[in-house]
Amino acid sequence: MSQQEQWQLSGNAAELFERYMVPAIFGPWGADLVALAAPQPGERVLDVACGTGVVARLAAPHVGATGQVLGLDINAEVLAVARSLPPPPNASITWHEGSAVALPFSDATFDLILCQQGLQFFPDRPAALLEMHRGLVPGGRLALSVWRAMQHSPAYTVLVDALERHGFAEVATSRRAPFVLGSAEEIRALLVEAGFHHVTIRLAAKMARFASPELFVRLQTTASVTAPTSVFARVTEEARRALIREVSAVLRSYVDDEGLAFPMEAHVAVARP
Length: 273
Fold this sequence. Notes:
The chain is α/β, with parallel strands linked by helices. It is built from 10 helices and 8 strands. The chain has one domain: 3-Layer(aba) Sandwich (Rossmann fold), CATH 3.40.50. Helix 3 links the parallel strand 1 (44-48) and strand 2. Helix 6 runs antiparallel to helix 7 (169-176).
């Protein structure tokens, strides 16, 4: 099998996200977020913008059979993948389709709310944080993570520069979107404005790993769970190969015997209502 054939991706955006992006980025970062939040046996936990459910699945064993974990996302496609995956042993998760800016839950329902890399995508961030504040019990806690500015994630900087040079402005914008809330001061201000106290924000760094630069470029130019499929329609196979050559050459120093490995940095916040 040629390298080109090896990385011919199949599946919808949610399936590709679960198959490749979760092991490369969101699983390891999600484990760190859950460890920091420290869910306890019997607690009620909500994972906002849960995607395919990695954070919810990581939290569920901590709360056990006496606790409750719910995952919420506005995207039915990612929830279908989440529902198709088995829950952890001795724990259950329920999945809900809904918006972070209008949580479909009563006041003071949850001991812990988690949100991994979702806040920057919400159409009304203050409203979403007010909703999370409303959903927490007195003494509860919110733990969320948001990527720092894109220059702290070098592979994405290289990719976006290449996309813009090749005239794929829409794709470049979609790849820049995860990094638009890169200021710790802005995150803190949003949390305080929503009524949160005892806000702690820490800087976290971790390596992202993909099997090859080619796989990274193909994933980033094929589909996304946060952008319409039509955004990627103009990226032909010929254009994709040119992008792979260019990005791979620049990222050569980030390639080791196991593939592509590059640092990413995030702000991780814990706050109480």
